[in-house]
């Protein structure tokens, strides 16, 4: 059986495709872009690539006829433009997910892994925010403030309904703040962690005027991929929603220290205060990942130092695969 991966050419998708092919599983990737720059030659050679829109029913029907699809990993979404294009974002991110669930139902595809977001919990306040950082649990209330977050909540709810009515094994993964190669190019303002790492490694001075006191749960993209592949393959899961995180908070000062451990002469200055992302809504906090550890067998393999070292290796073409 083969795995259908939507949005598989992105920052999170590229390592997922690599891990699937390393395990002898052929991914069938549908992506609206033809940009394969984040894929290595081996992964690209082991992947069947379809350029198109996963909401195109005619195209999807042709894929069902051509391939023996056993599961779906759904990562495709409108991200950066969601707030300014609410109708289009809802069409793709929410209703598009429902259409994909319907596709799974019609074609007997049982496992459906949906990449959700910490954004479903909304603004962090009280003990969940600075300075206490009480970990957010999957059963805590959802309070999605922005279009992207609302779409994730809607898609999760519909996934649970398809699970209840049709027996689809729907799994939602709510990710902490993700960083990794490609983030600065693909995710723009959401890539400040990656930007700090990349600019420092290039020998450029880095100045972040505010935010050094803010703790956040930073998750390296290699761990993201491990969690997705585990969710797609581990049988008989007792839960359908998982926080995917490190379970601990780190600051930009911690990040700077990890970079300096690799490149001591870097020039980084971090100012005090909170909310270094500068967004109207601050999602920063720590996410409880015990359910993922106990049920998925997911334990983050990359602490901040290991992640920065692996990141540096990938930028240089060495790809050391630390922690694997």
Helix content: 25-40%
Q: Round the mean pLDDT to the nearest integer and report it.
A: 93
CATH fold name of the domain at 2-178 and 220-248 and 288-300, please? Answer: Rossmann fold
Spans of at least 5 consecutive residues whose pLDDT stays below 50 are 319-324
User: Which structural class should the secondary elements be placed in?
Assistant: alpha/beta
Oligomer: single chain
Number of helices: 11
CATH homologous superfamily annotation of the domain at 2-178 and 220-248 and 288-300: NAD(P)-binding Rossmann-like Domain
Number of strands: 11
**Name of the CATH class of the domain at 2-178 and 220-248 and 288-300:** Alpha Beta
Beta content comes to: 15-25%
Rg, Cα atoms, Å = 19 Å
Spatial arrangement of strands, main beta sheet: 3-2-1-4-5-6-10
Order of helices and strands: EHEHEHEHEHEEHHEEHEHEHH
Distance between the termini: 25 Å
The major β-sheet equals: 7 strands, parallel
In the CATH hierarchy, what is the architecture of the domain at 2-178 and 220-248 and 288-300 at level 2? Answer: 3-Layer(aba) Sandwich
Shape: globular
Question: Can you give a write-up of this model?
Answer:
A seven-stranded parallel β-sheet has the order 3-2-1-4-5-6-10, with helices on both faces. The chain has a two-stranded parallel ribbon with strand order 7-9. With 324 residues, it is α/β, with parallel strands linked by helices. Helix 2 (41-45) links the parallel strand 2 and strand 3 (48-51). The protein has a domain at 2-178 and 220-248 and 288-300: Rossmann fold (3-Layer(aba) Sandwich), CATH 3.40.50.720. The chain has helices at 13-22, 41-45, 57-66, 86-106, 147-166, 183-186, 192-201, 221-233, 252-262, 290-296, 304-316, and strands at 2-6, 27-31, 48-51, 69-74, 111-117, 169-175, 177-179, 206-208, 218-220, 241-244, 268-270.
């Amino acid at each position: 059986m083969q795995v259908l991966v939507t949005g598989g050419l992105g920052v999170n998708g590229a390592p997922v495709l690599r891990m699937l092919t390393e395990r002898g599983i052929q991914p069938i990737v549908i992506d609206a872009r033809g940009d394969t720059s984040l894929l290595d030659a081996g992964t690209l050679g082991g992947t069947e690539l379809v350029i198109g829109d996963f909401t195109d029913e005619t195209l999807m029907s042709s894929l069902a006829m051509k391939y023996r699809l056993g599961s779906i990993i759904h990562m495709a979404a409108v991200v950066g433009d969601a707030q300014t294009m609410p109708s289009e974002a809802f069409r793709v991110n929410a209703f598009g997910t429902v259409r994909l669930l319907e596709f799974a139902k019609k074609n007997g595809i049982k496992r459906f892994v949906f990449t959700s977001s910490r954004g479903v919990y909304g603004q962090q306040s009280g003990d969940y925010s600075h300075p206490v950082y009480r970990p957010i649990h999957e059963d805590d209330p959802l309070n999605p403030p922005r279009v992207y977050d609302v779409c994730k909540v809607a898609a999760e709810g519909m996934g649970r309904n398809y699970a209840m009515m049709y027996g689809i094994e729907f799994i939602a993964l709510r990710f902490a703040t993700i960083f990794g190669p490609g983030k600065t190019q693909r995710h723009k303002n959401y890539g400040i962690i990656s930007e700090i790492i990349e600019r420092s490694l290039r020998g450029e001075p880095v100045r972040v005027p505010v935010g050094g006191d803010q703790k956040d749960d930073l998750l390296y993209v290699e761990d993201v991929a491990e969690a997705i592949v585990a969710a797609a393959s581990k049988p008989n899961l007792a839960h359908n929603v998982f926080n995917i995180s490190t379970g601990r908070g780190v600051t930009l000062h911690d990040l700077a220290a990890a970079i300096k451990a690799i490149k001591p002469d870097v020039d980084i200055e971090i100012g005090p205060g909170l909310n270094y992302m500068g967004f109207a809504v601050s999602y920063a906090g720590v996410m409880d990942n015990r359910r993922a550890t106990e049920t998925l067998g997911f334990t983050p393999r990359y602490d901040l130092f290991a992640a920065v070292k692996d990141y540096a290796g990938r930028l240089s073409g060495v790809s050391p695969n630390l922690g694997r």
